[in-house]
Amino acid sequence: MAWLQLRIDITPDQIERFEEFLLAFGAHAVTLEDRKNQPLFEPTPDYTPFWDHTRLTALFDADTDMEPLLEQLRSALGYDSLPRHQVEILEDKDWVREWMSHFEPTRFGQQLWVCPSWKPVPDPDAVNLMLDPGLAFGTGTHPTTALCLEWLDGQPLRGQQVVDYGCGSGILGIAALLLGAERVTGVDYDPQALEASADNLQRNQLPADAMALYLPGDTPELSADLVIANILAGPLQQLYPTLDGLLKPGGRIALSGILVEQAPSLLETYSASFDMEPPRVKGDWVLLYGRKRG
Question: Which range is the signal sequence, renumbered to this chain (predicted)?
Answer without folding.
Answer: none
